[in-house]
């Protein structure tokens, strides 16, 4: 993994995290416990803060960045960020899921248990409410998602990624 101090900020990584060999974590980044940061992912906190909760998985090829002195990233607990996602200065609440290839722009908010479909583009300042499904480019509201089903699905995905990450620990490597 690449861990880099920038402007006096050194990344902070919680306990029991898996960070892939070629993931880059740079600057003002705080990662909670039991997270997994997958291959070719970049968390670039060089210009502003990135805060990630517990049991978050950020899948292969994703890029998280912010605007200098303007936007930050806040990701809650039990969040899944799909492959090749771009999050730029947005807030993602607990139990949310961001589908593969989605883009979430500055000052957007994704509510608790919300789903952003694969390939969607969530424009700046968009507010996605709790338990809403949004899709498209630009992303638009599709329907409400049953809160318990969404939470159950998102916790299952988060737990699966926690299990997958354990396959990579030295004591389990084959």
State the shape.
Answer: globular
Q: Residue share in helices?
A: 10-25%
Summarize the main sheet.
12 strands, parallel
Total number of beta strands:
20
Provide the fold topology.
Blueprint: E1 2-4, E2 12-13, E3 18-19, E4 24-31, E5 36-37, E6 42-52, E7 57-58, E8 63-65, E9 73-75, E10 80-81, E11 86-88, E12 91-92, E13 97-98, E14 103-104, E15 109-110, E16 115-116, E17 121-122, E18 127-128, E19 132-136, E20 139-144, H1 147-166
Parallel strand pairs: 1-4, 2-4, 3-5, 4-6, 5-7, 6-8, 6-9, 7-10, 8-11, 9-12, 10-13, 11-14, 12-15, 13-16, 14-17, 15-18, 16-19
Antiparallel strand pairs: 19-20
Describe what is shown at a glance.
The protein has 174 residues and is mostly beta strands. 11% of the residues lie in helices and 38% in strands.
What do you see in this structure?
It is a single chain. The chain has 174 residues and is mainly β. It contains 1 helix and 20 strands. The chain is globular, with a radius of gyration of 15 Å. The two termini are 20 Å apart. The mean pLDDT is 95.
List the keywords.
174 residues, mainly beta, 12-stranded parallel sheet, 8-stranded mixed sheet, 20 strands
């Amino acid at each position: 993994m690449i861990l880099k101090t920038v402007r006096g900020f050194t990344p902070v990584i919680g306990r029991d995290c898996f960070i892939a060999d070629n993931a880059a974590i740079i600057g003002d980044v705080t990662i909670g416990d039991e997270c997994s940061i997958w291959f070719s992912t970049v968390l670039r906190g060089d210009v502003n803060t990135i805060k990630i909760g517990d049991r978050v998985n950020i899948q292969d090829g994703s890029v998280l960045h912010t605007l200098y002195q303007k936007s930050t990233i806040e990701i809650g607990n039990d969040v899944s960020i799909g492959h090749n996602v771009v999050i730029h200065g947005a807030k993602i609440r607990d139990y949310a899921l961001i589908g593969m290839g989605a883009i979430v722009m500055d000052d957007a908010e994704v509510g608790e248990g919300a789903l952003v479909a694969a390939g969607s583009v969530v424009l700046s300042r968009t507010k996605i409410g709790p338990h809403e499904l949004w899709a498209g480019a630009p992303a638009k509201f599709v329907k409400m998602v049953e809160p318990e089903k969404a939470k159950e699905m998102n916790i299952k995905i988060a737990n699966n990624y926690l299990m997958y990450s354990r396959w990579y620990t030295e004591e389990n490597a084959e």
